[in-house]
Amino acid sequence: MTEHAVIIAGGGPTGLMLACELTLTGIDVAIVEKRVSPAIVGSRAGGLHSRTIEVLDQRGIADRFLSEGQVAQVTGFAATKLDISDLPTRHPYGLGLWQNHIERILASRADELDVTIYRGSAVSDFEQDDIGVDMKLSNGQSLRAEYLVGCDGGRSLVRKKVGIEFSGWESTTSSLIAEVEMTEQPPMGTHHTPLGIHSFGRLEYEIRDGEVVYKDEGPVRVLVPEQHVRGAAGEATLRELSAALIAACGTDYGVHSPTWISRFTDMARQAASYRKGRVLLAGDAAHVHSPVGGQGLNTGVQDAVNLGWKLAQVVSGTSPDTLLDTYHSERHPVAARVLRNTLAQVALLRPDDRTEAARSVVAELLQMDEPRKRFGAMMSGLDIHYDLGEGHPLLGRRMPDLNLVTASGQVRVYTLLHSARPILLNLGKPGAFDIKPWIDRVQLVDAQYAGAWELPVFGKVTAPGAVLVRPDGYVAWVGDSTRRGLVDALWTWFGAPADYRPGAHNEGKPL
Taking every annotated instance into account, which residue ranges of this chain make up the domain FAD-binding (predicted)? Predict the structure, then answer.
């Protein structure tokens, strides 16, 4: 039986990102992926939001995606575009990039890090005990790991077999999405009809003056509503796609040669718990919803970055396994909010006159400055706030990517996070902090910064004297040279001090 510290079921964007995060910290991780080839077929998701680009920037790989995608103001709510160009981030935009390219770049990153991938198989059964999980693969192979993470999609076998409830809302709408060839030229763009929204776009395009300009040739990406809600019953067919196009457009434009066809609905479900013993869930295995707003892939990648460093510390023995409970307590509310806003968007996109009136009123409100910024920050992930208690407005929020001046020169905050190690950033008197018991885990950086600290939507905040930044880029402690609460925060998030002996420390306690 082959053993690894962590097994990830599923090698999509969430699974790949999690594997890279764990490998960065020296954890032995393997992915089990049913696809035989690393070649990705299909482009279901179409881009990255601002916070996801920041997350990739924190690991030094954002440029790989930016160099292949199309930068644009793609954030929106219920078909209303939201300009986020004035939000305080180095990436005040979305990135148009099909999922097949996103996965290819992440797979290349995983290959660089020598991540083990078992291809052509899937986790078919497993049992967990007090110290690990025994797994059987569909090809007959057996594996064992300390932890199993299900990143195996909305129909997650891992979630079902571990017995985690997946409750929510049933489907009320059904649509087909596909990559196809067409003998006739369809009208590019998004169109509203009495049956609902349908759209056509070629896979190859450019952004010119903020507008999408499609190439003249190549495969067409089609989205079209179905007249009847079919849910997940059976695989979508070319005949069904043709019928749906004729119903919506009066013609199927000679549709043929599909690369893939898929059905999606507005079903919204979320796992009741993201963890059961030594089995965890991330990405679509933990939450599914309508693709409106393009938040699914982004939420999954950010799940991976929240979980990765925590799981690494537990596996390495740095932190107790109760640290993993904070994965659920932080990420479950984020996805619940995504489900809520997708439900609202689907409701506002219904093809009737009354709903159209409501949608136009909401669109008018979103042209106002404060609602635009608030919804733009929500949809792009910039306003995520983990509940870490009362205190400075930065506590529990993403750390701004400040330009810092250190003894060794200028550096950005996100550059310091490339190795996925936390940072204690001292912006006051050099040498004011001594964290020797944690220095093997936490970077101590004395620096200066001159400027206004800003948060999305909430405006300027008072610049703190010191900030403790977690590996996922969120602020775990804010203070000054008095150090009040710092030891407690270090112990809570990064384990007991290296010289810990029971009774030797008066401040700080395990989770």
Answer: 5-342
CB-CB contact of 93 with 71 (8 Å) = yes
- For residues 21 and 112, the answer to whether their CB atoms sit within 8 Å is no
Distances (CA, A) of 144 to 10, 127, 147, 274: 16, 10, 9, 21
Q: Look at residue 296 and give its three-state secondary structure.
A: helix
Question: Taking a C-beta distance cutoff of 8 angstroms, is the pair 352, 197 a contact?
Answer: no
443-446 and 423-426 strand pairing: parallel
- CB atoms under 10 Å from CB of 142, counted, come to 11
Instruction: Tell me the pLDDT of the chain (511 aa) as tens digits.
Output: 899 999 999 999 999 999 999 999 999 999 999 998 766 655 566 789 999 999 999 999 999 999 999 888 768 999 899 999 999 999 999 998 988 899 999 999 999 999 999 999 999 999 999 999 999 999 999 999 999 999 999 999 999 999 999 999 999 988 999 999 999 999 988 888 788 888 898 877 666 666 666 666 788 989 999 988 865 556 889 999 999 999 999 999 999 999 889 888 899 999 999 999 999 999 999 999 998 888 999 999 999 999 999 999 999 999 999 999 999 999 999 999 999 999 999 999 998 889 999 999 999 999 999 999 999 999 999 999 999 998 889 999 999 998 998 888 889 999 999 999 999 999 988 888 989 999 999 999 999 886 666 665 667 777 788 999 999 999 999 998 778 899 999 999 999 998 766 655 444 444 3
**Dmax of the chain from CA atoms?**
78
Instruction: Return the domain boundaries, the chain.
Output: 2-169+269-380, 174-265, 403-494
Looking at 3.40.50.1580, 3.40.50.2300, 3.40.30.120, 2.60.120.340, the CATH number of the domain 403-494 comes to: 3.40.30.120
Architecture of domain 2-169+269-380: 3-Layer(bba) Sandwich (3.50)
pTM of the full structure = 0.93
The fold of the 174-265 domain, in CATH, is: Alpha-Beta Plaits (3.30.70)
In angstroms, the CA 475 to CA 465 distance is: 13
Least Cα distance to 339 among 160, 95, 173, 167 occurs for 167
Whether 330 contacts 386, CB under 8 Å: yes
Residues 104 and 41: their CA atoms lie apart, in Å, by: 10
Residues 120, 353: Cα–Cα separation, whole Å? 49
